[in-house]
Here is the input.
Amino acid sequence: MEGTISLGIWDSNDKLVRVLQCEAKIDKFTVEENSLSTTWDGKSDLGGDLPAGKYRARGYLVGKLKVEVLGKVPSPPEDATDHISVKLVINPLVADTRSVMDVGVNFGANGVFLRTMDDLPLATIIESLTPTRVLISKNGENAADVWQDDGSNVEHLRVSNIDKMMAFDCGFFDLK
Here is the structure.
């Protein structure tokens, strides 16, 4: 499967402490015989050294999303929320136990993006500078509708191919 990779580090309390890669292309990794590899400097997203302990690396491969701008609407529908359930592509390398996951929508300095519910950014939907809130709802098995609200206008977007995501777990390791 082709796409981009988002990879994070979680502490022993299952809290995301570092986003190692966000929407990275495969050339951001070292390609080895049966894997991709990268390094982590033991720091948090804020740049501070994390304490010694057990950490876990995991991530998602996100296929190419198709984003359509459907135009302005008076308001989002009442069933729109901050997350939806998405059926993932089964990872052929492991017995996949996360075949369905909740995917959220959020916004930041780089625009509106899909994220895991523990805040790992997965894919940028649209570069937008001014939303004050974003909402999402499912539209079939492989699409979602997203509404970005800037306080005076609500824009409706459709994101297709959301079912083209695959989870992977890099396992636990000790930071000393």
Summary: The longest strand covers residues 165-175. The mean pLDDT is 91.
